[in-house]
Each structure stands twice: as structure tokens, then as C-alpha cells.
Amino acid sequence: AGYRTGQFGKWHLGDNYPYRPQDRGFQEAVYFPSSHIPSAPDFWNNDYFDDTYRHNGRLEKYTGYCTDVFFSEALRWLGERREADEPFFAYIASNAPHGPLFAPDQDREPYRDLPRNVASFYAMIANIDENVGRLEAFLADAGLKDNTILIFMTDNGGTAGVPLFNAGMRGRKIDLYDGGHRVPCFVRWPAGGLRPPGAIDELTHCQDLLPTLIELCGLERPAGAVFDGVSLAGLLRGREERLPDRMLVVQFSRMNAPQPKKGDAAVLWQKWRLVKGEELYDLRSDPAQQRNIAAEHPEIVQRMREHYAAWWSRVEPTLNDFSPIHVGSDAENPTLLSPCEWQDVFLDQAAQVRRGERKNGVWNILVERAGQYEISLRRWPVEADTPISAAVPEYRATDGTYPAGLALPITKARLRIGGQDFSRAVADDDKAATWQVTLPAGRTTLQTWFFDAQGEALCGAYYVSVRRQ
Predict the structure, then answer these.
(1) Three-state SS at 372
(2) Cα–Cα distances in angstroms (integers) from residue 111 to residues 48, 59, 118, 161, 342, in the given order
(3) Which of 101, 233, 236, 239 could form a disulfide with 120 if both were Cys (CB 3.0 to 4.6 A apart)?
(4) Residue 27, CB half-sphere, CA atoms under 13 Å: how many?
(5) Radius of gyration of the chain (CA)
(6) What residues contact residue 214 under an 8 Å CB cut-off, 6+ apart?
(7) Per-residue pLDDT tens for 370-394?
(8) Can you give the pTM of this predicted structure?
């Protein structure tokens, strides 16, 4: 539609081609991969301060605290759009507040009487507040405030601050109770003809934002597009008081188990919440979800169960259709595989790599071009510059410490890709185990192993580089 597009901060939608922000429509992207800093694929020893991030796919060093950097880069880019008189869409996704709880000292100072973790958590929120203020000042000074749609929201329920304040809700991050998934969403557009400021008490979810923005901006709806959400434009403009009646489902995919389990979900309908198909709550009379009234309303329970069954029947057939990482593409060569992309295995934290967690998994890949490939297996990332079987020292971060990384008694490496299987010894000073492999084009799987001298499998290679030659 002619908008310039920028993304700044967290990108937890795929670390490799074709799932990176620059592959998915963003013309400018300053970001870190996976779930947090420092995730397993993140630049080694990133610690929120003076870190190395990806800029349109290239590693670049930045100065300052992470949230400050992401807002500064967004404001730089917005200023360029203002000078060029170009419409823009900016997506600023802060990693804070998230563990590890690192924050600037000056932001922690007002909370010094609280436990350090809580003080740090609140400091991260205060820092976001300051940066939203910077954004506000920029929009006002640039004459953009009145005709810019500003949306502020968060991504899940409470975490470190829950013991002190959880708005009276039950549950926390990834719980099926409202405290695990209910979030704020503020929308402002001074020149957009919106209703007077106030709360809209309707059941909405983040999938409503895309159709809402399409309607508010007067864009052409893509032919054949089917959305999981509905436009909220009528509500926001005061033309409607209610949305069409609907039920929503919250299910946390593979977060808690290798396979999504039928029924491990919450169904949301008006004031009702059905949790795991058994517990029914009325949020208007019981916002803390303390009284299960399923026995008193069997007809409500049945109706919500039927909705969930229909929803499950639509999603269940494709639960194991994994999106493959592409290798051999001109868009990304070499491709770095990390353990956070292992199928149905949770290992996405640099802390887990340091501990040497004895886990292994399969990568789903698509070889774009047949040919000769160099495949290298590592325990530690390239920038750590450490032998496979060695330890790494404790790292004193700006606001904390990363523990030493444990040595593993690795003496042998194995690679299996498609129908090919390779093994070789690992010497004490080897930083990688490398093979030259001829690969046909098409989908396949890749798996690796590290063994000790007795032949016991210790773990998979946490990092694998695949380079088309």
C-alpha cells in the first residue's frame, strides 16, 4: 500500500531465511533472534548493554541499553521517513521486561527498597515508559502525532512483578487463566475520528489488529485473505457498541509439552472462561477465577466445548507440518542452525548451552539447490572461539554475571542428513567438526550427536553452519 516498514527489537518468528523480518516485508530491521537476550542463537554474551544485533541480516555493534537502542533506531528511521514525506509502519518490540533482569542503575534507583529482581523488573518498565515518552515527543515535534495511529500493548501475562501486583487476576505468563494471557491494548489517533477516550469492554485478541489497521487506513483488503480476527474500527470510531458474538481459544502450542494436547486450552466467550474443558468461571462476578461454576451451567460448558472441538478439528491436521529452514539460498549463505529450532525440544537459552544440557533434536530443512555443502558442528558459537570439549569462563556482564560454561568430554561427532551418515573423532583443540557433503534439492532433516570416549551420546551440536559452496 506504499508504506515504508521498520521493525526494531524482538523477532521471535524465525531466525533463518525465509522467516526473518527482512524476508517478511520489513525494509528496515534492527533485531535480535528468538525469545530473549541472550537466547541460544543471539550473539554470544549479549547482556542488554552495548550489544551486537542484526541489522537487515548483518551483525552490527550498538552502544547503549537495549530498549534505548531499539527506540533510538526507530526514531532515526522515523525521522528519515518524515524528511522523505513517506507513510510508515513501525513495529517496536522491546525484549524488556524479561529475564535476565538487567537494567540501568538510574532506572532501578526509585525501587531500591524492593528485592533486587523486582526492582530491576520495575526499572525495565520505567525505562520503557521513558522511551515511549521520547517517541511521543518526536511525533509531536515532527508534526506527526495527530495523524499517526499509536498502539501500545504487551505480549503475555505477568512475570516477575506478579507477587506484588497482578491486577487481581489468577495465573501468570502462559497460564490458561486470564492472568496468563490478558494484556493491555491502547489505541490513539487524534485526527482519526475515534470515539472519546475510554475503556471498551469487548472480547478482542491480537489477531484483530491487522483487519483493524486495514480498515482504519483505508487499504485494499488482499484478495482471498482470510483473517482469524475482525476489524475493531467500528468500535474505535463509536459506530458500534458491540462486536458480533464470538468465542476465542487460547492454547500455548508446544510450550509445555512436545505435542499440543487436545483440551489443554481456555475458551473465552463474553464473560465466561472455560479452562481445560472442566472449569467454568464468570469474570464479571469472579474476576480472580476462584469459583468453578461448571456444575451450575452445564449448557454453557457444552456450548463452549463444542466450539473448542470444532476449532481443534481445524488446527489438528496441520500440527506437525513444520516450516523448514531453507539452506543454500542466496538470501542466506551460510545458514546458522541453533537448538531453539529443534523439533519439539526446548533449548532456546544461552544458559542452557552453558550448562551443556543433554538434549538433542532434529532440524527440518529445505535444500534450495543441489550441490556441495560444507557442514560444521559446534558446541559453542563461532564468536565464543572455544574448542568443542572445553569450558568457557564466567562472564561478568554489565549488570550481572553469566556463569561459566561447563566442559563436556566430547571425543566424537556424528552428522546425519537425509540418508547420509558421517562420523569423526574430535580432538581436544577442535572448535568444529566439518564435512563436505553432496546434497540433493528438497526437504529433509538434519541431526547431530556428540559422544564421549565410552560412546555415550552427550547432546546434539548446539550450533551447525550449512554453507553452499
Answers:
(1) strand
(2) 20, 35, 8, 12, 40
(3) 101
(4) 10
(5) 24
(6) 221, 231
(7) 999 999 999 999 999 999 999 999 9
(8) 0.96
